[in-house]
Amino acid sequence: MAAVKKSVSVKDVARLAGVSEQTVSRTVHDSPSVRPETKERVRAAMRELGYRPNFAGRSLRRGKFKTVGVAMFNITGTGNLDRMEGFAAAADKHGYAITLTKVDGHPYTLESASSRMSALPVDGMVVIMNRMPADFGTFEPLPGMQTVLVTMLEHPLCSTVDNDQFDCSRQVVEYLLERGHKTVHFISCPERSLSGMRREEGWRETLRAHGIEPPRLIRGDWTAQSGYAAGQALADDPTCTAIYASNDAMAYGCIRGLESRGKCVPQDVSVAGVDDSLGDIVPDRRLTTVRFDNKRVGMWAVDKIAGADGGASGVEHMLIPGVLVEGDTVRDLR
Amino acid sequence: MAAVKKSVSVKDVARLAGVSEQTVSRTVHDSPSVRPETKERVRAAMRELGYRPNFAGRSLRRGKFKTVGVAMFNITGTGNLDRMEGFAAAADKHGYAITLTKVDGHPYTLESASSRMSALPVDGMVVIMNRMPADFGTFEPLPGMQTVLVTMLEHPLCSTVDNDQFDCSRQVVEYLLERGHKTVHFISCPERSLSGMRREEGWRETLRAHGIEPPRLIRGDWTAQSGYAAGQALADDPTCTAIYASNDAMAYGCIRGLESRGKCVPQDVSVAGVDDSLGDIVPDRRLTTVRFDNKRVGMWAVDKIAGADGGASGVEHMLIPGVLVEGDTVRDLR
DNA sequence: TTGCACAATGGCAACGTTAACATTTGGGCG
DNA sequence: CGCCCAAATGTTAACGTTGCCATTGTGCAA
Lengths: 334, 334
Fold this sequence. Notes:
Chain A is an alpha/beta fold. Chain A has eleven helices and twelve strands. In chain A, the strands form three sheets. The first copy, chain A, has a six-stranded parallel sheet, with helices on both faces. In chain A, strands 7-6-8-9 form a four-stranded parallel sheet, with helices on both faces. In chain A, strands 10-12 form a two-stranded antiparallel ribbon. In chain A, helix 1 (10-17) packs across helix 2 (21-28) and helix 1 (10-17) packs across helix 3.
């Protein structure tokens, strides 16, 4: 039984149902101009033969793929999972699929992502930028291929979307200042990180906006170890009552570093982070941090492409603010 | 300038280069039977017109999409990022693309994943199973669609691949026994988790194989909080010198729980976990754990589909063992 | 009875690519 | 000089689908 057929096409179904190919097509699309009984006959034939529409034929005919490509230079990045959840959710909503591609970052250019995508069955593409591509200023998207960049930087020809990496710092700093802290120390990150630099600017400018000269920052490397060292270094600074770390791992490391020097959090020093990435890993603390909605970032990007669906919509830039999550690592001095 | 053309096809390129469509096609595929100077002329025409091959036409002609579909019930799962890295790497190697789909798990069946995929341009599919699908026993893959399941269970019709969730427990338990511990206490996980149950079996059976009756286990819920509680509960048990937690978050929670009761790790009690998921988050500890190679799991799955490439290869089952990573949370009693 | 509108269905062509086969050209060799 | 081979290029058809237009059938008003 069931010899492995090549593949079942409308023609086969049409023959079996005793109708024309066109009627089969109409049945597939549930056109109202097919008699219900005919439809049922066709459906029966489809079931019997195990017919499923061929994507290639359809796309060829329609000139659309109903697919959005996602290009990543680095798949294993913080937040990518949530972003993908967003891509998938939005794609689903529009009846689109997601095609994932890893682009090797040598060179790290938008052009390389774009040309990689150009050979794939996609109607538009999303590029997740972690660093600054060499050709950011000069890049032009492929004609007819709507391109969305996930970055805080604005681009003249591509829509962009990202978490608001400046505003998260503003939120944290103001939260600490409101609670009576005279200044906020900062644990930064490697200088090549775009988002990290923006967080740093947010910290600095918010302090200045409140008439406070930012203290010297400590440069970390995203790891808890570097936060630990920073915590130990700051433990002896009597002016330091509040520390803001540019990610949660460093914040947690900092807490442990302070504790190793006999300081208590939050009694002696308050600590806050960004990213809400500790999840269920740390048992005895609820870190005060900022939660980003990466899923929403992902959805926005795909919505932009799948939602337009032909009606070419203009270039937009979207920054999605995070939400400050109150934990138990900040003391109210008022 | 540059009016938005419909799209550039071989025909346009052929006309401009003054050759036949076939010669263009041959040039695209770098066939040796085209004179170099002709090739150059064609390439110039392609550049001038901005030609890029149409995926739909190509797939239609070839009957292949060069794409592997990945179906996930739950995108935000531990290890998914590394697995995707593996999917992407293997796909790249074979010149394939990856199409990602979220399947809503109501009902949680392989059939729903399969029918979702059937409408997409894919040659084969990978399903990431977290739980037991209702139709696991009865499921048959779509004809012509090679299907690989990411699970430890074996399936008669689909190849399967996963981390070896039994062996990781064996490794940890034997590591602890070798170091002089008389028994190993266990912090388990919710009973619905397939992999968690297998880890539990590994713990139990390895102890029995060494003639040790397993002590009563403590059921956790994957979170550090539950590990914390377990640690506190075990702190007063004098027979407890070694604890194995079925993930790292619980292991770390357990350490903190023990410490909260005045016990030191590893001086008083040794603790080990599985997953190597703490990464850079915990500053002052290097947990003894088992590192899985999820990237390799992902690569194996896609290799299986893209590697066969027509020559239908048989059903295989692959378990990839993890590697025990020595940290500083286990004491050698010898 | 004829004419007409409308519902249901069929025929044909085209989307872009490429495998298979056909044709042309040039060169070497008897 | 004619023959044959190989290299280079061209022609045709087909992959599966669906938009457009044509055809058939049915009921109803004139």
